[in-house]
Amino acid sequence: MPSVGRLRQQPAPAPRRGAALSAPPAQRARRDLGSFDEGRVLTEELHVFRAEGKHYGRWYGTVEPESAAHAERLYNIVDYDNDATTVSRYRIPKGRLIYDGPVAGGNGTQIFVPDSHAAGVELVETKPLVQFGF
Predict the structure, then answer these.
(1) pLDDT tens across 59-79, in order?
(2) Structural domain boundaries of the chain?
């Protein structure tokens, strides 16, 4: 995993995965980080993965899943209406703020990017995800 530098000021906490989306954005941003580490600024680019049915999002994983079942074991995605038909690799540029921590209900490590588009997260490749093993 690339080296990351600690922030000098305490960043606003990231919302926990599955946090109530009806809360105003500012309130969601103040929620407890739970199992997340404090925010980190990347000192080099980072490649991350998403098992997904639609591109982009704020949640990424550090391991490329081999199948939809593997993605579920790693990232607990089915509970979040993710149909996991493809796996995509993304590049998060150096200097971007991320949050990382273990997946609640899964075996993987997840990366949270507060605003993927503003952070310059770039889709590198997408391929079909094998649909067996459930």
Answers:
(1) 999 999 999 999 999 998 887
(2) 4-128
Could you tell me the strand order of the sheet in which 4-6 lies? 4-6, 40-42, 97-102, 109-112, 59-61, 46-52, 86-92, 122-128
Question: Which numeric CATH code is attached to 4-128?
Answer: 3.20.170
Alpha-carbon dihedral sign for residues 129, 80, 74, 55: positive
Residue 134 corresponds to which tokens in the numbers above?
């459930």
Residue of 85, 78, 99, 81 whose CA lies nearest to 16: 99
User: CA 23 to CA 59: how far, in whole Å?
Assistant: 19
Buried b (16+ CB within 10 A) or exposed e, 77-110: beeeebebebbbbbebeeebbbbbbebeebebbb
